[in-house]
Task: structure prediction
Amino acid sequence: MSMGLGQTDNDDELLESHEINVTPFIDVMLVLLIIFMIAVPLATVDVPVDLPTSNASKQDRPDTPVYLTIRQDLKLALGDELVSHDQLAAKLEQATGGDQETRLFLRADKSVDYGELMNVMNQLRAAGYLKIALVGLEATT
Result:
C-alpha cells in the first residue's frame, strides 16, 4: 500500500473550516465610512438667503387682521399706531380683545436684522401669542 502525505484512511471525511471571513465585512464598512464622510458635509447648509419674497399659495385672511410691523428704523407699529417694545404686550391685548389664539401677521422691512426679528418674535411668544404669520411679497413669475 502506498500512502500519501496528508491523507487519511477515510477519504470521505472533509476538513471543515470554522473561521469567519471578515474581509467582505471590513470592505463594506470602509465603503460606508467613505459615503458618510462625503455626505455629512453636504448635509449642512451655509448659504446666505434672501427671505422677503415668497411663492407660497395665497391664504385666506381674517376680516380684521392684526398687523405688527418692524420698520426700517426698528420701531414697531401695530396697525398704523407706533408702539414701543415695552407697550407691545398691552397693545396686543387691546387689539385682539385678549384672545391669544388670534393670528398675528408680522411684517418686517428687508433691511431689518434677523436678530431683531427674533427678538420681536420672542416678545410675542412671551406675551402668549404663538400663531404668527410672516408676511412677504409675492414672487412674480
